[in-house]
Amino acid sequence: MWFLRRMLRISWTAKKKNDTVLEEAHTTRLLISKIRKRQATFFGHVMRREKLENLVTTGMLEGKRSRGKQREKLIEGLADWLKAGKSLEAIEATKDRKKWRTMIANAVKQGT
């Protein structure tokens, strides 16, 4: 965003929202969507394998929960981004590679 503001010669004291700066530059936030896409492809890879990484990622380990506010899990963030509804739907979608890839492609097209 700093670089776009410099290119468009927008003063740092100007009270412009990032969305308006992106509209003026006729661009979107590419970095966040690339990161999310890579997270989703890696998550699909891990979920198709029935190993320790699968248990850790889904959070289905035995034991007590830690105190305080619980951290947001990777699966919950990806389910929101993919608009899969619940995290269980996203986990089930990873079993079918073709369906998982189309979900990722649709989410990237919609942008975030």
Write the layout of secondary structure elements.
Blueprint: H1 2-7, H2 18-25, H3 30-48, H4 52-58, H5 74-82, H6 87-95, H7 97-110
Helix pairs in contact: 3-7, 5-6
Plain-language structure description:
The protein has 112 residues and is mostly helical. It has 7 helices and no strands. The longest helix has 19 residues, at 30-48. The chain is elongated, with a radius of gyration of 18 Å. The model has no long low-confidence stretch (mean pLDDT 82).
Short description:
With 112 residues, this protein is mainly α.
Return the average pLDDT rounded to an integer.
82
Q: What order do the SSEs take from the amino end to the carboxyl end, as H and E?
A: HHHHHHH
* Beta fraction: under 5%
Tell me the number of strands.
0
- What overall form do the CA principal axes indicate? elongated
The helix/strand class is: mainly alpha
Unreliable stretches (pLDDT < 50, length at least 5) are none
Report Rg.
Answer: 18 Å
Report the biggest beta sheet as strand number plus sense, adding barrel if it closes. none
- What's the tally of helices? 7
Helix share, percent: 55-70%
Through-space gap between termini: 15 Å
Features:
mainly alpha, 0% strand, 64% helix, 112 residues, nuclease, endonuclease, endonuclease activity
